Amino acid sequence: MPLEDGDPASWRGQQVNGEVSGTPQLRGTGHPPPWGTPAPDGSRTEAMAEGWEPGPAPGDRDVTFGGGPQRAGQEPWQREEALMGELSELVQKVVKSSSWWERHGVDISILTCSFLLLPAGFLCLRSAQAIPFLAGVLTLGVVHHTLTVKGSHLASHNALTESKSWGKVWAIFFIELCSAFTAEQATYNHVKIHHGYTNVIGLGDSSTWKVPFLNRYIYMFIAPLAVPIITPLVALDLLRNVEWKAALRTLCCMFLGLYCHYWLLLHVSGFQSPWSALLCMLLTRSLLAHPYIHVNIFQHIGLPMFAADRKPKRIHLMSLGVLNLPRNALLDWSFGHSLISCHVEHHLFPSLSDNMCLKIKPIVSQYLKQKKLPYNEDTYTSRLRLFLQRYEELMVHAPPITELVGIQ
Which region is the signal sequence (predicted)? Predict the structure, then answer.
């Protein structure tokens, strides 16, 4: 049975220098499945990823551990589900009392403002002077990442609207037209795999972000510049895993989005040669690629990792394997709160918009700390320093599996 809270060997889940402390036993390794591979136990995956109910059924061999007094006669898995149910009830009260503006309007307004800034960005690039030209590059770069990162992320979770039909439309628009990727594969990999199996080795462990043959400085500071080129190439490869109608639609949307960007640079911004226009496209589309890559690895890799048959219940899985970064005006606008300072909240309640994640943040953080569960937070510079120092361990070698001490 689990160790009592007073046992010094029990897992505490406290933060030390941006990592979760404890005394884990390490064993085994694993590799991520190929794109398009059905998730194991797929019937429950979507419920875990998007629903607010506790995760797997009691029969699963999930890890449980201490974190507060256990009620008499209550099984460990019942206590875990009760914790998630209690937190969900608190959050649902906030959501129900919130207006449409708070639930969706704020984030839709940010995306709308980004669209309205597009003409100014393209026109600034017409200038022969350095300052207006750089202002145009900065504007288009920020707008591009707002639409492709924030817009695509919210659309993949259907967090922009309460209509599933419109949610599908927005997913195609933001993911395929703006981001040059495939909506089906992006949604499957992110929502059903990464969210359903956060930090589970071979499934949602962020292994897709690892490029072991690159050294730390190339990966962290040079390779991100290639993201705008790699993204559509990966999308083309993934089209083998979708139906031909969806593949044809994706190809048309990808071509239309890329060609419109190129055409506007030639005919509105006044670029004289195709190569200069293509170079400007690469520059604007990679402007925030460095923090994009960094954020995706900082918030999961280096935290506890689990085997599929030895993972904690949902509330512990998310509190252990997810980390929040501090608020940052530029990244909050371009990426959204759910990817920066409210990532824990987002993984617990993925269908909420960025603004709602920010609104429930005090409730979630207070609840987790009250129940003696981890609530991981660290700074961007601290995580960057950690990854540069331990790059071989975290990004080259396969991550070890965490066994919570005292669990039988």
Answer: none
CA distances to 219, 404, 407 from 294, rounded to whole Å, are: 10, 27, 33
- State the Cα–Cα distance between residues 301 and 77, nearest whole angstrom: 26
Q: Is 16 helix (H, G, I), strand (E, B) or coil?
A: strand
Q: CA dihedral defined by 4, 18, 359, 200, rounded to 10 degrees?
A: -70
Cβ proximity of 322 and 343 under 8 Å: yes
Tokens of 357: 């994640």
Q: Which helix (H) or strand (E) holds 154?
A: helix 152-156
User: Do 191 and 50 touch, CB atoms closer than 8 A?
Assistant: yes
Alpha carbon distance 158, 313 (integer Å): 24
* pLDDT tens for each residue of 37-95: 333 443 333 333 444 433 333 334 444 444 444 455 556 556 778 899 999 999 999 99
How many residues are given for the chain?
408
- Do residues 313 and 78 lie in contact, with contact meaning Cβ atoms separated by under 8 Å? no
Amino acid type, 283: L
Q: For residue 23, which phi and psi values (nearest 5 degrees)?
A: -125, 70
User: What residue spans of 76-163 are helical by DSSP H?
Assistant: 76-96, 100, 106-124, 130-145, 152-156
Separation of alpha carbons 186 and 165, rounded Å: 17
At 349, list the tokens: 């309640």
Cβ burial 127-140 (10 Å sphere, 16+ → b, else e): eeeeeebebbbebb
- Burial environment of residue 345 by CB neighbours within 10 A (0 to 12, 13 to 18, 19 or more): buried
Q: Say if residues 89 and 97 touch (Cβ distance below 8 Å).
A: no
Q: Which residue has the tokens 């617990």?
A: 348
Phi-psi category of 14—alpha, beta or left, where left has phi over 0 and alpha has psi -120 to 50? beta
Model pTM?
Answer: 0.82
CA gap 157, 149 in Å, rounded: 12
At a CB cut-off of 8 Å and minimum separation 6, what does 88 contact? 52, 53, 349
Q: Quick one: 390 exposed, middle or buried, by C-beta within 10 A (0-12, 13-18, 19+)?
A: middle
Say if CB 28 and CB 382 are below 8 A apart: no
What confidence tens digit (pLDDT) does each residue in 290-345 have? 999 999 999 999 999 999 888 888 999 999 999 999 999 999 999 999 999 999 99
Burial class (CB in 10 A: 0-12, 13-18, 19+), 335: buried
